[in-house]
Every structure is written in structure tokens, then in C-alpha cells.
Amino acid sequence: MLNTLSGRFLILTIIFVMLAEVFIFVPSIARFREDYLLARLERAQIASLALEADDMLAPELEAELLKNAEVFNVVLRRDEVRQLALSSPIPAPIHASYDMRDPSAMALIGDAIDALLDTEERVIRVLGNPVRDGGLLIEVTMMQKPLREAMLTYGRNVLILSAVISIITAFLLFLSVQALLVRPIKGVVSAMQRYAAAPEDARQIIQPSAGVRELRDAEESLQLLQQQLTGALKQKDRLAQLGGAVAKVSHDLRNILTSAQLFTDRIESSDDPLVKRMAPKLVGSISRAVNLCETTLAFGRVDEPAPILSRIALESVVNDVVDSERLAVGDYDLSVDSDLPPGMMIRADGEQLFRVISNLVRNAREAIMATHKPGTITVRATEDDAAWHIAVEDTGPGLPPKAREHLFKAFQGSVRKGGTGLGIAIAQDLVRGHGGRIELERSDANGTVFVIQLPKADLALAPLSE
Q: Whole-structure pTM over 0.70, yes or no?
């Protein structure tokens, strides 16, 4: 409880009320002592009136009057004449005299403190003005111990009353702090926790509702901060998606431009003067476009748009890929062929399927050419009642263990130095959009085989078991 705001308010309130009572107690006990002594003077004056009524009082009656007045003797002064009105034996010498006719506040406080601290049996003399003009002066002698005991009793009562007042005040303040501060603060904390769990959700932004101006200012500042953060997160997400999209487009566009670059190499051999003059500029422009695409491949990945499915001839798509790759091979001892059933029709998005097969074939070509050894790449296809199966086989060196471990992860599954690993990741996304999947059927020293499976039914193929 001491670690809570309301608990600390409770303890501090009790402490401060008690401190306030201490400051009040000092003048209060001084006033109590003054009233006590004045009351004894008044009682002594009343007792002396009995003597004026009858000059010859019995000793027993005189002793009874002094006992009731709680004094040892009474001296009255009238007309400059000092008269001992009542008297009895004094048990000890007079320790001090106190004049109550016109004492200062500091004198009263000092005398009260001395009386509280003095535990000895003392006899004191008290002087004062008689009431109702009963003379010029009244003087009594009395014991100080009863005065001290009365002051202690009064102090204990004040302490108990102060404690009760402080506890009640602290409890009321505790309830007030709970309602005005603690509950709104807990609401702000809960709103912050909900927002932290889902900062992108604009519904979790706090709505200011506190009645206390300072807390409402804090809520409004927090609301502004959350709005800015949510906007920044959304903008970051959009930029990440845009970056991923640009990376994918740049990857495939680079492949297309590379093929176009190969065509321009052939154009440069033309005898046409105009072609010879324009070809270098065309080559330069395409090269710059390829470089620009390569510099954008550091962006993230996002989902591809849904494919537009239609019945297409698989041979047409594969032949476009094979022709482009044969140009890239050039004079290198590498064969790129296809082995397809005649007239096979499949249901797919032609452009996306071209990108999938092109990425797989290009990866195979680059892997084989990196070994500086001859090789072959073959695109095959089969079908059954459930799906079409398109296999891309090569006689390359196979995938290294690290590439197989991160095969379908963008920027991690590249085989060659400087590669991005986007090709196979893009291919997987595109095939998943068709409801199909890509499997690495085999990869060893004899080569690699990837198999694309496209479902014939509207339902997607079941995922591979891990």
C-alpha cells in the first residue's frame, strides 16, 4: 500500500495533520494552564467571601474551604492593605511565583512547558486580579503537581482527538485521491497497455475523458503521440510493402532487360549505318536500367496480386523462357530444352507462370555457368487427376546446405555471390497464389530438380508436411 499513490497520500495526511496539531498544542496547553490557574484564583476568592461574612470561622470549615479551592492560603489586597484571608500550613518552600494579571504569550508558553517537564513536588505562588472588582490583588499558594496532571490529561485528550481527526481526514482524502487521480491514472495505464499490444490499430488510441485538467492534458498529449506513432507505423508498413513490390518487379524486370540487352548485342552487328549509330545508345540505356533494377533489390517482400487464371498452352510459355535463356547462354556449352506433352493445356496466369519458370531456369543456368562446366537444363511436364506437375531439371552442382536451409526466404536463399535470393521466393509466392506449391525434389552433385504443382480443382493443394 505504501507504494501506491493513494497509500502515500494517506500516510502523509496523517503525518501533516499530527504536525499541525503539535503546533496548535503548544499555545493550547499554555492557554489551558492559564485557565486552570485563573480558576483556582476565582475559587480562592469565593472561599475568602465566607470569611468576610463571618470573621470567626471554625478551623475545620476554613480547611474545607481551602481544600475545595485546592490552595494552601489566600491573600487579598484592598485599599493598599494586604490581608491574609485564609491560611494553612505550606508543605514546602515556594518554588516560583507566576503573575497572571497581564502575562505575555511567550511567557505563558514558556511557563507551560516548564510545568510539563518538571516532575518534582513544587509549591508555587499565583497572583491575579480579583473578579468583579473584589480588590486590587489576589494571591494564592498551591501545589504544581495537580496542575501538571491536569495538563497531561488535557494533552492526551488532544492527542487522541488529533489522531481521530487525522485518520478521518486521511481516509476522506484517500477516497478523493482514488476517485480523482488514481482511477483516471489507471485508465491511462490500461489504455497505454492496450495500445502497446496493437499499436497499428487506431481503435486503441486513447480518448481523453479525465475531469482533472492536468490529467486531461496528459491524455491529450498521449493521444497525439499515439496518433503520430500509428501514422508512422502505417506509413512504414506501406513503405515496406512498396519496397517489397519494387524489389520483386525490379528482379524480374532486370531479367527481361538482360534478355533485351542480349538482343541489342546482335543488333550491333547490323550493317545498317543508322542501327550501328543508335545501337550503343540503346545498349547504354538498357544497361543503366538493369543497374537501376539491381539497386532496388534491397527492399522487403509483400504478397503478389491474385493471378488471373485462364486456359493456356504450357508449351508457349516454356518456349518463351527457353528462347530467352538460350540467348543468355550464348556460346557457352549449356543446353536449354523442354520435354512437354504435345498440346498440354493448363489453367494458370500466363505472365506469372512465365516468371516462375524463368526464375527457376535462370537460377539453374547461373549455377551451371558458375562452375565453368557444360550442362543441361530441361523443363518437363506431367499431369494426373489432381494437378499439373512442371519440373525444372539441371545437371548443375546442386544447392549448398545453407541455400537449402533458407531456400524460400528472400535475401537469404541465394546460391551465387551477390545474389538476392528473391527469384525462388518470388516463384513460391506466385505459385501459392495459384493454390499450388513448389518442391525441391532433389539436389545433389548430379543436379537439382524443382517441381511446380498446380491444382486442377478450385481448392488449393494441401501444404507439405514438415
A: no
